[in-house]
Amino acid sequence: MKHLLVIGGCGYIGSHMVKCLLNAGYEVTVLDDLSAGHADALLGGELIVGDFGDRAVLDKAFAARRFDGVLHFASLIQVGESVADPARYYASNVAKSLTLLSAMKDHKPGPLIFSSSAAIYGEPIRSPIDEAHPRQPINPYGQTKHIVEAMLADFDRAYGLRSVSLRYFNAAGADPEARIGERHDPETHLIPLALQAILGRRAALKVFGRDYDTPDGTCIRDYIHVDDLADAHLLALDYLWRGGATTAFNLGNGEGFSVQQVLDVASATAGKAVPYVDAPRRPGDPARLVADAARAKSVLGWRPRYADLDSIIRHAWQWETRRP
């Protein structure tokens, strides 16, 4: 039985990954400082409460157990905050990741799956975006992901530490059984914001711009169900265990949905209209961000199970109406 270390496993995507691993029969240890994650989001496994940037914590964890791989989800994720406070983002996302990679170099626990982001591409010059698209991040958050990917390539060349970077577009949805879901604080993602507005937990949603070159004038984004993301991580681990080379894959549906489509489906799912107000465009918001995930499908054999917006929003709604 393989044993895996999940860094940041109490967060949104990490907790769904833990669920996926447990369902597949793996042993799981989670390392999380609970600064953004929730201990009650774990559906099993062992929890070590600690900072993955603390070398002593890592040494103790690696010395106590033999891991067959590491999945790294711990990251600060707010683009706007990264612009206002880049020092915090470089310290957390880059410096702590370097500490993790250095510990892995010494302890050799197996390969690494890194939670990367479409933010490394910056302003798209074509759509859909494939892995060969120029990587020119336009904010510190995206730059931190870009730097870690570069470090991973260097650690493979120098030390043989193989890895896969998975570049998410827009993670969405929740466990279909509504046991776990999205619990960011503050929340910045469109689907939970819309659903929470319906429930009266927050003010009316702001729709930033209705004059884009899209069919309904609102921005188009690629939403991928969080369980489908978890499936891709498991396939990426298997790829590395079979000797696969260090590489990166885009993860997305390959079809975008507009802001207005999200509002329409959310309203239909809840049986009540999303309260919203129109607002001016936000600087730097491209009209379309859609993934070309053909490589993940061909190399990993990945097939999203919940590629439709209805399923994504239905699962998110079930979670929002039951969440703590």
UniProtKB/TrEMBL annotation:
Q: What is this protein called?
A: UDP-glucose 4-epimerase
Q: Per the similarity annotation, which family is this?
A: Belongs to the NAD(P)-dependent epimerase/dehydratase family.
Q: How does it assemble?
A: Homodimer.
Q: Does the keyword DNA-binding apply?
A: no
Task: Provide the catalytic activity annotation.
Answer: UDP-alpha-D-glucose = UDP-alpha-D-galactose
Alphabetical list of InterPro entries matching this protein: Epimerase_deHydtase (IPR001509), NAD(P)-bd_dom_sf (IPR036291), UDP_G4E (IPR005886)
Organismal lineage = Bacteria, Pseudomonadati, Pseudomonadota, Betaproteobacteria, Nitrosomonadales
Q: What is its EC number?
A: 5.1.3.2
Q: Which residues form the NAD-dependent epimerase/dehydratase domain?
A: 5-252
Instruction: Offer one Pfam family short name for this entry.
Output: Epimerase
GO terms in the biological process aspect are: galactose catabolic process via UDP-galactose, Leloir pathway
Secreted as a keyword of this entry, yes or no, is no
**Which metal ions or organic cofactors does this protein require, according to UniProt?**
NAD(+)
Biochemical pathway: Carbohydrate metabolism; galactose metabolism
Molecular function terms, GO-annotated: UDP-glucose 4-epimerase activity
Give the record's keywords alphabetically: Carbohydrate metabolism, Isomerase, NAD
